[in-house]
Every structure is written in C-alpha cells, then in structure tokens.
Amino acid sequence: MTGWVVHHDMRAPEFGTPAQQLYSAALEMSQWADEHGASGITLSEHHGSRDGYLPAPLTMAAAVAARTTRVNITVSALILTLRDPIATAEEAMVVDLISGGRLLLILAGGYVADECAMFGIDFERRGEVFEEKLAAFVQALTGEEFEYQGRRITVTPRAARHPRPPVLLGGFAPKRAARLADGYAPPTADLSLADTYRAESRRLGKGDGLLIWPGGPKWVFVTEDPDKAWAQIGPNVLHEANSYGEWAAAAAGGAPYAEIVDVEAVRKMGHYAVVTPEECIDLVRRQDPGSRLVFKPLVAGLDPDLGWASLRLFVDRVLPALK
Question: For residues 104 and 125, what is the distance between their CA atoms, to the nearest angstrom?
C-alpha cells in the first residue's frame, strides 16, 4: 500500500454542517491523520461557489502545516490562471517554510468560465495566460532574481527546499506538463494521458518524468453498514457529484463528472467506495500499487461525527490487517 490521504475542499452547503465547524474539524482530522500514519493531506481550490468551496488553499495549507509534523501537504489544484504569480509564490514559500519542506503544488489552468470572469481573465485565452504565469511562478519559487513583465523581481524568503518546491501540473494537457513542470497528475486514470506525458518527457530528455497516478475510487468511506452509511451520506455525495457535474457540463472535458438524478445513481457511478473494513482491505490489495487511498470525511458538509467514525474504523480495522 503506497499510502492514504485525507482530502478537504471545505464545501459547506446550507443543508450541511456550518463552515466554521467544518474548518475546525478539518484541522483536527488533519492532525489526527498525521499522528496515525497518513501520507498526506490534500486541499483543493475553487472560487465563487455557492457552497463555499475552499478559495484559499495556501492559507489552509499553512494552518494544516502548523498542526502536523510529517504528512505531505498537497494543493491540488492551485488555479494559477486566476492568481498573481509573484504573490502566490510568496505565499507558497512561506507555507513551505512553516511545513519544513512538506508542500507539494499541483497547478491547473482552470475550467470554470465563471471563475475566469470573476477575476477578469479571458476564458478563451486561459491556457496562454496560465503558461505565462506558470513560467514566472516557477522562477519566483527559486528566490533568484528574474525579469517579469519588464520588472526585476526577487521573491523572499527562500523556501525550505532548494532550489524550490516541486511543481506539477494537473488537467488534460500532458505535453504541457512534460514541457513546463516537474511532473504530471492526470485527473482521470486514462492511460493515454500517461503515455503521452511519458513520451513527451522522454523526447525532451527528462526520462519518464514524475507521474502521480489517480487509480482506484475517488474516495473511500469505511463503515460496518454500507446501506445505512449511504442513507446518511447520500445527500452530501449527490451534492458534490452534481456540483462538479454542473461545472463539467459547461466545459467539455473539464472533469470526470456528469449531473446525477439521485443517490442510487451516484452509487452506481463507482466513483465512491462505501465499504466495510473487510471490503476496504480487499480494495487496497487489488488497487494499483502506485495509487493512494483517498478519504473525504467532510464531503459536502458531512456531519464530522460520521467522518470521524469512518477514519477511526479504517485505522483500527483496516491498517492492522494491511501491515
């Protein structure tokens, strides 16, 4: 087993747990996961979402870094198109220092037109804007002087790692990742994306590159009674699936989701594994060894008590069997 991670995106729809309570629970869960052998905490970014999806992942990453000592802290994905690359590099370097060099950045150009409009970005030019900002961002992370838009810039303080923290790309542009980044994190387990990335990386003289493979279910929920658990978490999962589906419908290929009618349809999608401890053990043993087990214990404002029960059951019943 490669590892298990806890993912927070801080969605807080009106029918769910209030945002302030969710943020507190997310930090407590992150600390607990760090103490119980998790390999990472993942944080995501979106803007202007009605359910309050996390818009400031680097701020949250700093809070997680202050509560943990061992886990990697991944921002996936940081939507650099919407950001000032210099100010974002400053924030990232501070988080890297607070964490002692545990920050991993997976960047993306974004696929939600409303977000681009919110920040005054031409949606049709987002790829061009992203690449320009990415070049400046990577340079800024080194702490060395460079030129950007006719200005001489040096970003301080230097990050904990030298020459800089690693930068990977997400999204559906594997050749861009090979050309401009340290690695690639495809959004779906599409072998053609991996093959294209590796081939381009080799062509550029970079070997096979670094690939973070998204094998297995999108996330796992461990329970003694899956049917009862689905009745409890179903509305939250349906909200998440349809929220992503709404974005994906507006941008073809933007995400591996489509709008769903009901909870039963969500169950049949196969994205979410609501399993007993024994089923979870089997799932891990069958899973691609290069992938990770992902937990989302606060999915769409889920009652933290339900999320805690899942995490503890995994640690108490599943991990010992795998070891």
Answer: 26
